[in-house]
Amino acid sequence: MNPTFHIAVLEGDGIGPEVTREAIRATDAAMSREQAKIEWTHFPWGTDYFFDHGRMAPADYLDQLAPFDAILLGAVGHPAVQDHVTLNGLLLPIRRRFEQYVCLRPAYLYPGVESPLRNKAPGSIDLLVFRENTEGEYVNVGGRVYAQSDDDIAIQTAVFTRRGCERIIRAAFESAATRPRKRVASITKSNAQGFGMVLWDEVFAKVAKEYPQIATESLLVDRSVMEFVRRPESFDVVVASNLFGDILTDLAAIIVGSMGLAASGNIDPTRKHPSMFEPVHGSAPDITGKGLANPLAAILSAAMMLEHLHLRHAAEALDAAVKSLLANHGPRTPDLGGTAQTTQVGDAIVALLK
Ligand code: NAD
Ligand code: IPM
Ligand code: MN
Predict the structure, then answer these.
(1) What is the pLDDT of residues 286-304, one digit of tens each?
(2) Which ligand sits closest to the CA of 105?
(3) Rounded to 5 degrees, what are φ and ψ at 149?
(4) 63: which of 116, 235, 237, 284 is 20 to 30 A away, CA to CA?
(5) What is the domain partition of the chain in residue ranges?
(6) 1-100+259-354 and 126-255 in the same fold
């Protein structure tokens, strides 16, 4: 019997549905290489659901997602509703409840893509960010007192635990050990954040001792953004807190050409819970509905999902199709200097997979 993988699809808002549709088409085409099937289950959750129901998803939505093998997400966020409402109502609780403590975000300069940085050779930028994904600055612990008055007080706390720091840092070292360059850079701001990020630095130093074959550096975040521009080639694996990892991965995306190429996986390495795969980019309201969205980030995220599900032939085929499209100057969307529509890029990927 061929196994069936059950995937929950949350297309979400803005360009989310446009790019997710192409990721599903491409995945279906790539799956002809596997003795397995994918069954997609679509959930209509997001801001349109919010307009009808006053919430982003049903109260038991996490329980509904729990039995799936993985989740494929487009994007969440709508200009008419405050982002902290939409994101805390759908996306961020998934990462926490399903212990997706590794947010894996590769950035690779593909042949055929130009970096906005001068004279960068294809493949010269090849880094992998391990973003902590369940705690840190994103725990949303705090409160508001005397809101909207002159005495307004807001408290927002970051939470760093030894267990939380150790598991993401260890995951980064384990990955670096399998890569040729064997380097890990840790990014904090422990000169100003004297508790949580000092704990992070201590844990980093302790875990590093267990991997003597791996070269390490520890950078302050302000310097690190400068070094991402000055010497991006020097980075291999990068490990950072939730917020710093978020910021660094938009930067990593643009130095390898576009937000429209940046893929991401929210991974529970223990496999107790479903992992979730989504592009790094958001709902891009400025280009929604115009056919301008680059679907390649969503397609590469689907490839990460296939890899996670051990559907290696399909994953490799998707990666190869994207690589070939870019290297051979196939149709591309305006973010990459082209004039193609979202669906034309999707068609070209499907054709390459046939
Ligand atoms: P964004 O990533 O949506 O857009 C940033 C810029 O990149 C825009 O100019 C956009 O047009 C462009 N862009 C993004 N994806 C693209 C693609 N696939 N092809 C071509 N161009 C692309 O970031 P933003 O504008 O800061 O956020 C918009 C909304 O998305 C907000 O509501 C935000 O909270 C939300 N958001 C959601 C996620 C998510 O769901 N994972 C991620 C980031 C932002
Ligand atoms: C991302 C996004 C989210 C994050 C937002 C939308 C909460 O920017 O996935 O990078 O910060 O994690
Ligand atoms: Mn982000």
Answers:
(1) 999 999 999 999 999 999 9
(2) 2
(3) -110, 175
(4) 284
(5) 1-100+259-354, 126-255
(6) yes
Work out whether the CA dihedral 332, 119, 227, 126 comes out positive or negative. positive
Ligand 1 neighbours by CB, cut-off 6 Å: 15, 19, 75-77, 83, 87, 91, 259-260, 278, 281-287, 293-294, 297, 333, 335
What is the C-alpha separation between 294 and 336, in angstroms, rounded? 8
Q: Work out the number of other CB atoms within 10 angstroms of the CB of residue 206.
A: 13
For 92-118, the pLDDT digits (tens) are 999 999 999 999 999 999 999 999 999
Please tell me whether the overall predicted TM-score, pTM, comes out greater than 0.85 for this model.
yes
Measure the CA–CA gap between 303 and 278, rounded to whole angstroms. Answer: 10
Class of domain 126-255: alpha beta
**CATH no. of 1-100+259-354:** 3.40.718.10
Q: Strands of 263-267's sheet, edge to edge? A: 37-42, 4-12, 70-75, 275-279, 263-267, 102-108, 126-132, 237-240, 183-188, 215-220
The DSSP code for 159 is: E
